[in-house]
Amino acid sequence: MEPTEILPIVAIFSVVTVEFGGHALLRFITTDPDRLGAFRERFFRAGHAHAGVLLILSLVYLLYLPRAGFGDGLEWACGAALLGGVLAQSGGFFLHLGIGQQGRSSAGTLLTRTGALLLAVALIALAAGLIRAA
C-alpha cells in the first residue's frame, strides 16, 4: 500500500483518541472541577486542542502529498514527520501536565518544541514539492 493510503487511516483512528480525550476532560471538569487544578487543566486543554486541529491538518496534508510528486520513500518520511510532529507537539503538553511545574520548562516543553519542528519540516517539504511540481 501507498503511504497516502495508510497514513490517513492512522490519522482518522487517532481522531477517535482525541474524542476520548475530550470526553475525559469534560468528565474531569463536570464531576470534580478541582481534580486537575488550573495548571493541569490548561495543559490538558492545550494538548487536546492541538491534537485535534493538527490531526485534521494532517488529513488535508495527506490529500496534497501525492501532488508533490515525491517517491514513496519521501512520502513515508514526510508523513512520518507530520504525524510524529502531531504526537510530539500535543503529547508534550500532556507530559508537561504530568511532570512539569508552573513557570518552568520540562521534558514536555522540549517534546512540544520538537513536535513543532517536525511539523515545520513536513510542511516546508510539502510546500517545496508542490512548488516544484507546479
Describe the structure.
This protein is mainly alpha-helical. It has one domain (3-133). 84% of the residues lie in helices and 0% in strands. The protein is built from four helices and no strands. It has helices at residues 3-31, 37-64, 72-99, 107-133. Helix 3 packs antiparallel against helix 4 (107-133). The relative contact order is 0.14. Keywords: Membrane, Transmembrane, Transmembrane helix. The chain crosses the membrane at residues 6-26, 47-64, 76-98, 110-131.
Supply the number of structural domains: 1
Class inferred from helices and paired strands? mainly alpha
The total beta strand count reads 0
Percent helix: over 70%
How far is the N terminus from the C terminus?
A: 26 Å
Q: What is the succession of H and E elements?
A: HHHH
Radius of gyration: 17 Å
How is the biggest beta sheet arranged? none
Which assembly state applies to the chains in this document?
Answer: single chain
Spans of 5+ residues with little confidence (pLDDT < 50)?
A: none
Question: What is the tally of helical segments?
Answer: 4
Write down the overall geometry: elongated
- Mean pLDDT figure: 94
Strand content: under 5%
